[in-house]
Specification:
By secondary structure, the chain is of the alpha/beta class. It contains 13 helices and 14 strands. An eight-stranded mixed sheet has the order 10-9-11-1-12-13-2-14, with helices on both faces. Strands 3, 4, 5, 6, 7 and 8 form a six-stranded mixed sheet that branches.
């Protein structure tokens, strides 16, 4: 008998500021709610049928449905952060106790000197910046000199922008791996990200060849446990990067939301038991970080239209959890992630309809539930809602 659990992360689609959001500069953020408020409407019939507007505390409860096709709730991040690595690790049952280091004033000289020594390329930038803005301001110098554009954000990231015609992709990947090797110990940032771009001054654009180099998870996750139990873990999109390929038996590094959803449905149809773990990165990367409200709304509506394909791919014993990892509100001045509640939309042929899961204390409740669903040993972190969703 095949039995799968699928965790699908709508990257950056938060549903309201957490109580401590003000400590992170995020008071008033509400990614999905503010998008709906901005336009006054949104076409998401399938997310509504799954109960997203029925979740406690959402600002768009006027869209609440009388009948829904799954169980629903929201979760608080236990980890004191708002980055993708910390969010995904907590979803996988590993809440971090210590935040990753941040570098709002740039990285220390010894880090940059070592990167230059190992790569043979000088460095420009070294500041907190928007990725699209910094390539416009420094791209021409980079093309002329071959120097690496290094920058960061409000999250724990070391980002390197490089033109594909100046630094070939294989060299870019080597540079990313080198930076990851340097940034450890006290300087162990959550992610090193290479940001390839193309074009000419005034019309630079980033490509789909981005690569993330995360830390190895600092403890066990359910990905490890599922593999050790002899089951499969299929990763879609940047999941393999976030977990540094650990606890993954098969993967498809797709490059767009449409492709991510298609690959997820394909894995759900395959005859194996285990976990399908998917990240839909476009919400965050293409629209949230660029404060593109129109693009964000269109992307949510486009994903909503694909949900029936996912539901049709679910087997008799499969579980689908649609969630997020943080917010990325395009209606605010900030272009960074925002500290928000994440939605829990839970469905499957054996899942109770209309069950309100309330507000969960940690994203790790997802991990605990997945382990119970797959019939594996109880996860020591988080509280399973398995018993609440059984039809």
């Amino acid at each position: 008998m095949n039995k799968k659990a699928c965790i699908l992360v709508m990257d950056g689609v938060g549903i309201g500021a957490l109580p401590d959001a003000g400590d992170f500069g995020d008071r008033g953020t509400d990614t999905l709610g503010n998008i709906i408020k901005h336009f006054g409407h949104i076409r998401i019939p399938n997310l509504l049928r799954l109960g997203i507007a029925n979740i406690d505390g959402v600002s768009f409860s006027h869209l609440k449905q009388k009948e829904v096709i799954g169980s629903y709730g929201r979760a608080v991040e236990k980890f004191a952060g708002k980055d993708s690595t910390g969010g995904h690790w907590e979803i996988a049952g590993l809440p971090l106790k210590k935040p990753f280091p941040l570098y709002p004033n740039g990285f220390p000289k010894e880090i940059l000197d070592e990167l230059q020594r190992r790569t043979g390329r000088a460095i420009i930038g070294n500041c907190l910046a928007s990725g699209t803005e910094i390539i416009e301001s420094m791209g021409e110098e980079h093309e002329r000199t071959g120097k690496l554009i290094v920058y960061t954000s409000a999250d724990s990231v070391f980002q390197i922008a490089m033109h594909e015609n100046v630094v070939p992709l294989d060299e870019q990947i080597r540079i990313g791996k080198t930076a990851r090797d340097i940034l450890k110990g006290n300087h162990a940032v959550g992610r090193v990200i290479i940001r390839p771009f193309v074009g000419k001054p005034g019309s630079y654009r980033r490509t789909v060849n981005r690569r993330d180099f995360s830390l190895q998870p600092t403890g066990p996750t359910i990905l490890d446990a599922i593999c050790e139990a002899g089951m499969e873990v299929a990763a879609v999109g940047k999941i393999e990067d976030i977990f540094d390929f650990r606890g993954i038996t098969r993967s498809n590094h797709t490059h767009s939301n449409d492709d991510h959803v298609y690959a997820t449905a394909e894995y759900l149809r395959q005859p194996f038991s285990g976990l399908v773990f998917t990240n839909l990165v476009d919400f965050d990367t293409l629209y949230g970080h660029r404060n593109d409200v129109v693009g964000y709304k269109n992307a949510i509506e486009a994903f909503d239209a694909q949900i029936p394909d996912l539901l049709a791919a679910l087997g008799e014993n499969d579980l689908l959890i649609i969630t997020a990892d943080h917010g990325c509100d395009p209606t605010t001045k900030s272009t960074d992630h925002s500290r928000e509640y994440i939605p829990l939309l839970v469905t499957g042929k054996k899942v109770k309809t209309g069950a309100n899961l309330g507000t969960r204390d940690t994203f790790a409740d997802i991990a605990a539930t997945v382990m119970d669903w797959l019939g594996l040993a109880p996860w020591p972190v988080g509280t399973s809602f398995f018993g609440d969703i059984l039809a």
